[in-house]
Amino acid sequence: MVKGELLLLDGATGTELSRRRVDTGLPLWSANALTTDTGLTVLRQVHLDYLNAGADILTANTFRTHRRALAGKGHDARELIRRAVATAQEAVAEFGQPAPVAGSVAPLEDCYRPDLVPPDDECRAEHCERIQHLVEAGVDLLLIETMTSIREAVIAAKLATATGLPAWVSFVCGREGRILSGESVAIAAEMLMPLGVKALGVNCGPAHTLAKSLAELRAVCGPDFPLIAYGNIGYADEEQGWINTDAVNPESYLQYAQTWPAQIVGGCCGTTPEHIRKLKDCRSLGAAVAEQIGSGRGQEPQGIVKLQPDSTTLFSPNL
Ligand SMILES: [Zn+2]
Questions:
Q1: Is the Cβ–Cβ distance between 217 and 227 less than 8 Å?
Q2: Most buried among 143, 191, 245, 315, using CB within 10 Å?
Q3: Which pLDDT score is estimated for 226?
Q4: How many domains, the chain?
Q5: How far, in Å, is the centroid of ligand 1 from the Cα of 318?
Q6: Ligand 1 midpoint to CA 289 (Å)
């Protein structure tokens, strides 16, 4: 983490639904929850638990709601997106304090297969449709996440920034710090920043592997550009989508997060409200310690202290 006040994302939705015994079988994965009353009730509670844990932003459960993921399953993408966003908004209303709801824009094909990214015209048409549905449903920002190639990310980012809503872009990187396509995050940043994206980052890699690509992004983006980081715990599974483990407890997750030079931090697959609560507790503690030490010595300590991304930058639309 960098110095200042953190902006907290929520943690995992799909794997948290699975922990709470909602069917998350592929291909619908987390979108299964949008097809039953029970699923929607549990989803709403997951969102509420993240808000109570300290998340500043909720991500609507729209990761697998695009037409391609739903193909042949008899579900309408627009309707599922409407339900997903409405459920997150209901949780915010129940929580009683405002919190932006991000629309998740996932890869059109398998999360970890850059070789399957569709041709440009298909990417453009399908991302355009989903982004329109998200805007209609009332999201506050567009989170283009888990991207495996620069090509698909750029297509989605152009469409997202054209809506006037803030657009953030996050990639999946391998242990060596490169995007799964083998491309460099530095080149991705050079292509995406001129498009007007408001934040860039890395997600859905093991929590201990994110620091390398984030450091590379930080070098290209400069010290003030908002970087996003949310890692996973567990591993992907071809049938169930994800196998949860408790291998990284909240305390360990926090320790990994402390190595990320990012201002926007949360959790991806396998993380829980307790992981977010740990980040939140530490954020408050860090700020208090910073104030104490800062007033005493006239300087700030290093570590998780006083992260305050400029909210006007992060949330202002592209005019
Ligand atoms: Zn993930």
A1: yes
A2: 143
A3: 95
A4: 1
A5: 28
A6: 32
The rounded Å distance from CA 319 to ligand 1 centre is: 31
**Confidence at residue 246, expressed as pLDDT on a 0 to 100 scale:** 78
Kindly report the length of the chain.
319
- Give the Cα separation of 183 and 212 in Å (integer): 14
Distance 295 CA to ligand 1 centre (A): 40
Q: How many CB atoms neighbour CB 269 within 10 A?
A: 27
Distance 237 CA to ligand 1 centre (A): 12
How far is the centre of ligand 1, averaged over its atoms, from the C-alpha of 146 (Å)? 7
pLDDT tens figures, 224-249: 899 999 999 987 777 777 787 877 89
CA of 269 to the centre of ligand 1 (A): 4
Would you list the DSSP string of 239-286?
Answer: TTEEE---SS-HHHHHHHHTT---SEEEE-TT--HHHHHHHHHHHHHH
Residue 284 C-alpha to ligand 1 middle, in angstroms? 26
Per-residue tokens: 197: 């994206």
- Domain membership of residue 1 (yes or no) is no
Domain that holds residue 297: 7-315
Contact 218, 264 (CB under 8 A): no
CATH number, domain containing residue 157: 3.20.20.330
Distance 288 CA to ligand 1 centre (A): 31
- Residue 2 pLDDT level (bands cut at 50, 70, 90): low
Give the per-residue pLDDT at 289.
Answer: 47
**Per-residue pLDDT at 80 exceeds 50:** yes
Task: Calculate how far, in angstroms, residue 13's C-alpha sits from the geometric centre of ligand 1.
Answer: 9
Is the pLDDT reported for residue 42 higher than 80?
Answer: yes
Is residue 116 one of the residues assigned to a domain? yes
* 287 belongs to a structural domain: yes
Determine the distance separating the centroid of ligand 1 and the alpha carbon of 5, expressed in angstroms.
24
Q: Does residue 303 register a pLDDT over 90?
A: no
Q: Is residue 241 part of a domain?
A: yes
What's the chain's average pLDDT?
A: 87
